[in-house]
Amino acid sequence: MSEESKKTESRKVRRQYSFQEKLELLDDADRSGESIGTVARRLGVSASGRCAKAGR
Question: Which one of 1, 15, 36, 52 has the fewest beta carbons within 10 angstroms of its own beta carbon?
Answer without folding.
Answer: 1
